[in-house]
Amino acid sequence: MNIESNTLLTALAAAVLLPFVVHDQYLLHLAIMALFYAVLASSLNLVVGYVGEFSLGHTAFLGVGAYTAALLSAKLGFPMWITIPVAGATSAAFGYLIGAITLRLQGPYFVIVTLSFAEVLRLVANNWIGLTNGPMGLAGISQDGIADKRAFFYIVLGIAVLSFYLCYRFVYSNSGRGAVAVRENRYVAQSIGVNPFESAMQAFVLGAFLAGLAGGFYAHYISFVGPEVFQFAFMASMIIMVLIGGKGTLVGPLIGAVIVTLLEEYLREVQQLRLTLFGLIVMAIVLFLPNGLMSLIPRRNESRNVDLVGAAPVKEGSL
Amino acid sequence: MDLFLQFLTNGLVIGAFYALSALGLTLIFGLMRVVNFAHGEIYMLGGVTGWFFTSYLGLNFFVGLALVTACIAVLGWLVDRFLIERVRGQGEEPGILLTIGLSIFLANFTLLVVGPAPLKVAGAVSEAPIFIGPIVITKLRLTAVLVTIALIMAAHLLIQKTRLGQAMRATFQDSMAANLAGIRTKQVYAATFALGCTLAALSGMLLASIYSAQASIGGLVSLKSFVVVILGGMGSFAGAIVGGLLLGVAEAMWGGYVATGMVDIIGFVLVILILLFRPQGIFASHAERA
Fold it and tell me: Among A158, A163, A150, A152, which Cα is nearest to A38's?
């Protein structure tokens, strides 16, 4: 733990000092996007990595957060420090609602129904023109007089730190351990008193909350929100980040977010080529590195979080 | 009333293509237990390669249909042998991820090669209208639907009457026993996957002769195919057909009477409702397998 926390503190210190070293606005923008994606990837990882169910509907929470902040700001004139937390809360409420419906399902059904929810929201955003301005989107969202990218950097860094802290607290809470136990073996977990629905729900709502915060931030930073936020391309990026870094680890999604954000930027000129390569990368990871980059790093305290139940393989005949 | 019959006809026409595509998915999803998220992209490839053979090279529609069948069958075979095979037996998740990767790759690679413009497959016959009582249907649509029905029947016969079909049914009932009985199950898996892909691609080509194919349509088609399979009950051949027709009609009615803008929402609302109240599908008495 000590080595890990030292590394993390060093990384945090480096992040805090970054805007003083980097004056290039473009690089600072990349850093902001990397942190934004780090929050998203971490929040998705709660469901995909810890609960072990594949949500393809995570853009729903990003989008709900972004639209909430955009509407509060554009139509009612609320400042950012209100709109972003409210965006998180609204997303969490949606998370509770969608979770209550979807978490009873498993496997492919869960995947399809979460994806359906995101699609329904995208179509609503596209067609409820009175509220969302349809495909035109909501433009000119107030930035509350913040003209400096540096300020945005510290806002998103704050959200990222909060996100990491909440994920950490969840993973090492009873619910987090319960979720991992269910992921590894549902029936054994139930037999020792874990309620699969409850722990999954907590991960789902927390994930929705964090994605909502990220969405709220995104609305103000980009100062535009359209139905694209619900698009599968966002979802694909998030999944790839979680996978590249290593699902079911706290640090993996952060590493994945940084790598993919940089890759995305440098391949931006050739949008289609970028996504073509992405497709290949995903397939290669599944085949050759199923546990992500984190699995390449030898760790001293063999991840208590990853193999809670599966750590000691049951020998044949021992049951 | 006349309008209702017209909407019904339009719905059944589209529904027939949904059914054909969903039949492919029900083989892959219902029987093989592979959640193929690239199904829609295979459908799209059917339209795009169909366009290449008929409109671009100027071949006859049915020659094009045969060539698409051959190309996509080989593609499906390769995908199974080189991708799906490697994660078989590891649960659903690696397969889901693999096919998501494949779908992103196929959609964007196609976009790179042919661009985003809609591509129209040159149809077998003209678009002259035919009047059946109060209903109007073009010759082209009618032919496409008849071909679809013929393909569905051919697929049914293939599975029920041939050696391959027998091997397929044996493999999905008990692959270990089938293996012991001398069936090369790996080949059967690959053949089933190839067949499933081919049905999707043919559906895509036929529909692209009426409308058009676009590199970006795959995602929506995948979802609709899943909707139909869930609607009909996993792995049920008849369910996929009824489910496909039902979705087609529901969309046509919604588009005709309520709002044209949000036709696609019907499928998603249906799938959410079904999974909520009747996860085994409307038409399956229990989780029936074909």
Answer: A163
Tell whether A113 lies on the interface with B, counting CB pairs under 8 A: yes
| Cα separations in angstroms, A86 against A10, A71, A73, A97, A213 | 31, 11, 11, 17, 8
In a domain, residue A140? The reply is: yes
Q: Judge contact between A293 and B117, C-beta under 8 A.
A: no
Q: Which residues of B are less than 8 Å from A116 in CB distance?
A: 223, 227, 267-268, 271-272
Per-residue pLDDT of A278-306, as tens digits, reads 889 889 988 998 888 888 877 655 444 44
Domain boundaries, chain B: 17-218
Q: Which residue has the higher pLDDT, A235 or A271?
A: A235
Residue A243 belongs to some domain of the structure = no
Q: Which domain does A173 fall in, by range? A: 8-228
Q: In Å, how far are A152, A188, A271, B238 from B103, measured between CA atoms?
A: 35, 36, 16, 27
Predicted local distance difference test score (pLDDT) of residue B43? 95
Q: Which residues contact A120 (CB under 8 A, 6 or more apart)?
A: B265, B268, B269, B272
Selecting from A105, A239, A282 the residue whose C-beta is nearest the C-beta of B279 gives A105
Give the per-residue pLDDT at B279. Answer: 66
pLDDT digits (tens, 9 = 90+) for A199-254: 899 999 999 999 999 999 999 999 899 988 888 778 888 988 998 888 888 998 99
Nearest by CB to residue B105, choosing from A101, A120, A276, is A276
Nearest to A115 by CA among A164, A59, A193, A162: A59
pTM: predicted TM-score of the whole model, two decimal places: 0.84
